[in-house]
């Protein structure tokens, strides 16, 4: 006879089992999109709402979308001991949205409903995606509860900045469900390694995208960087427990859930943002394609074509070398600095020379060109260490390269 899952349905071997906890906040309706992404990607999802969450999205909706019965009570189906079995059987528990009340009850070990009972019995990775008003998120009680949960190994995603309930705007918005899904996917992909939480309590800074140097009000000098590798680094760092500051230069990508995103335009702006963020960082990963040069003169009006005349030469001046600067002047003892080198020829030779010249701890060297690396979902590289090590990363998803970078960073952190 086929074994039964805790909810009474046939257990489906090979499908990751996810518990989606839903707290009673207005953002509860967004959890429907997260549920859809989880189920459509092959996960077996059991929804466990709080009683107040059912005021926003009803039981019938959760049952229809998940294919499982839904309850918020510990006294239903008592013979199956759901308050114990659901958490025990899960491969991942994600609470989205997680209100200030849910975070407080989880931090203090309360067990007055099915969700908090599930959290107490879970021995798998747990992800919280908070959503609340800014004042509630910034309150010392909430901050202490978040710190407690993180110290115990939970992933507590930083909320997004944006429109809240009513006319309020600030930090406390539920991150995009698609980005929460990416965090869950990364935590599940790491499996047992996710429990190690090797970046928990660490602050990391990642730069991504490509800077643009204005020539006139409508033209600029730029590059082909899409920012995808830097965003993969940010997502994987969040999934490994880090607090992430992402310095983003001209990308069209959604903000990674849990990262504090600082938008910049030029190399000078990127330098200012990186130096500010790096002051309290354990590691800085410079994945952005920073322009080496900028026009020496900015034209206030659009540069016009003139019949019979050649355009005036564009004089270039050097931009600051941000990687060399932060490598030479570490903001704190033990800070790890990682650079990226995009090369078109003599890749390793140029990479070794750049590693020595920049003074960083690790340098990710990859070959670029038309149709290679820039804008792609895949990458391959060799990571050179200042200690003489070489770590090849075969062609594959950019997240795989990102995880290898963080593996090497984590080993060097003290």
TrEMBL record:
Record-listed E.C. numbers: 4.1.1.36, 6.3.2.5
Region of interest: Phosphopantothenoylcysteine decarboxylase: 1-203
Domain of life: Bacteria
Region (Phosphopantothenate--cysteine ligase): 204-414
GO MF, any single term: phosphopantothenoylcysteine decarboxylase activity
Keywords: Decarboxylase, Flavoprotein, FMN, Ligase, Lyase, Magnesium, Metal-binding, Multifunctional enzyme
Binding site for CTP: 292, 302, 320-323, 340, 354, 358
Catalytic activity: (R)-4'-phosphopantothenate + L-cysteine + CTP = N-[(R)-4-phosphopantothenoyl]-L-cysteine + CMP + diphosphate + H(+); N-[(R)-4-phosphopantothenoyl]-L-cysteine + H(+) = (R)-4'-phosphopantetheine + CO2
Start and end residues of each Flavoprotein domain: 17-184
Gene Ontology biological-process entries: coenzyme A biosynthetic process; pantothenate catabolic process
Cofactor section: FMN; Mg(2+)
Domain DNA/pantothenate metabolism flavoprotein C-terminal: from-to ranges: 199-410
Metabolic or biological pathway, per its Swiss-Prot or TrEMBL entry: Cofactor biosynthesis; coenzyme A biosynthesis; CoA from (R)-pantothenate: step 2/5; Cofactor biosynthesis; coenzyme A biosynthesis; CoA from (R)-pantothenate: step 3/5
InterPro entries reported for this sequence: CoaB-like_sf (IPR035929), CoaBC (IPR005252), DNA/pantothenate-metab_flavo_C (IPR007085), Flavin_trans-like (IPR036551), Flavoprotein (IPR003382)
Cofactor info, note text: Binds 1 FMN per subunit.
One annotated Gene Ontology cellular component of this protein: phosphopantothenoylcysteine decarboxylase complex
Primary role: Catalyzes two sequential steps in the biosynthesis of coenzyme A. In the first step cysteine is conjugated to 4'-phosphopantothenate to form 4-phosphopantothenoylcysteine. In the second step the latter compound is decarboxylated to form 4'-phosphopantotheine. Catalyzes two steps in the biosynthesis of coenzyme A. In the first step cysteine is conjugated to 4'-phosphopantothenate to form 4-phosphopantothenoylcysteine, in the latter compound is decarboxylated to form 4'-phosphopantotheine.
Similarity comment: family membership: In the N-terminal section; belongs to the HFCD (homo-oligomeric flavin containing Cys decarboxylase) superfamily. In the C-terminal section; belongs to the PPC synthetase family.
NCBIfam families, sorted: coaBC_dfp
HAMAP family membership: CoaBC (MF_02225)
Protein name (Swiss-Prot/TrEMBL): Coenzyme A biosynthesis bifunctional protein CoaBC
Source species taxonomy: Bacteria, Bacillati, Actinomycetota, Actinomycetes, Kitasatosporales
């Amino acid at each position: 006879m086929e074994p039964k899952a805790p909810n009474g349905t046939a257990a489906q071997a090979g499908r990751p089992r996810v518990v989606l906890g839903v707290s009673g906040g207005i953002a509860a309706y967004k959890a429907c999109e997260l549920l859809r992404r989880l189920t459509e990607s092959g996960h077996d999802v059991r929804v466990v709402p709080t009683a107040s969450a059912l005021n926003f999205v009803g039981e019938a909706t959760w049952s229809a979308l998940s294919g499982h019965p839904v309850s918020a009570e510990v006294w239903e189906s008592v013979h199956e001991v759901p308050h114990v079995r659901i958490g025990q059987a899960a491969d991942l528990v994600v609470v989205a949205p997680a209100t200030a009340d849910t975070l407080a009850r989880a931090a203090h070990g309360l067990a007055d409903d099915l969700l908090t009972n599930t959290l107490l019995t879970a021995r798998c990775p747990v992800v919280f995606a908070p959503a609340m008003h800014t004042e509630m998120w910034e309150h010392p009680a909430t901050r202490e509860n978040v710190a407690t949960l993180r110290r115990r190994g939970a992933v507590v995603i930083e909320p997004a900045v944006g429109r809240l309930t009513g006319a309020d705007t600030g930090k406390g918005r539920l991150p995009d469900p698609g980005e929460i899904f990416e965090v869950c996917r990364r935590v599940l992909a790491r499996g047992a390694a996710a429990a190690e939480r090797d970046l928990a309590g660490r602050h990391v800074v990642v730069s991504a995208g490509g800077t643009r140097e204005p020539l006139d009000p409508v033209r600029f000098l730029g590059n082909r960087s899409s920012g995808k590798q830097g965003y993969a680094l940010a997502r994987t760092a969040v999934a490994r427990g880090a607090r992430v500051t992402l310095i983003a230069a001209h990308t069209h990508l959604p903000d990674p859930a849990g990262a504090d995103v600082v938008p910049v335009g030029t190399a000078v702006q990127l330098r200012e943002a990186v130096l500010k963020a790096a002051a309290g960082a354990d590691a800085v990963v410079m994945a952005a394609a920073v322009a080496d040069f900028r026009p020496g003169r900015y034209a206030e009006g659009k540069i016009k074509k003139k019949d019979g005349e050649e355009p005036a030469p564009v004089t270039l001046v050097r931009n600051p070398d941000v990687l060399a600067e932060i490598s030479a002047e570490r903001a704190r003892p033990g800070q790890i600095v990682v650079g990226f080198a995009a090369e078109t020829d003599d890749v390793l030779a140029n990479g070794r020379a750049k590693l020595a010249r920049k003074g960083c701890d690790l340098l990710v060297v990859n070959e670029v060109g038309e149709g290679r690396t820039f804008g792609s979902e895949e990458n391959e590289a060799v990571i050179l260490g200042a200690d003489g090590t070489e770590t090849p990363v075969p062609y594959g998803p950019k997240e795989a390269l990102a995880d290898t970078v963080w593996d090497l960073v984590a080993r060097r952190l003290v």
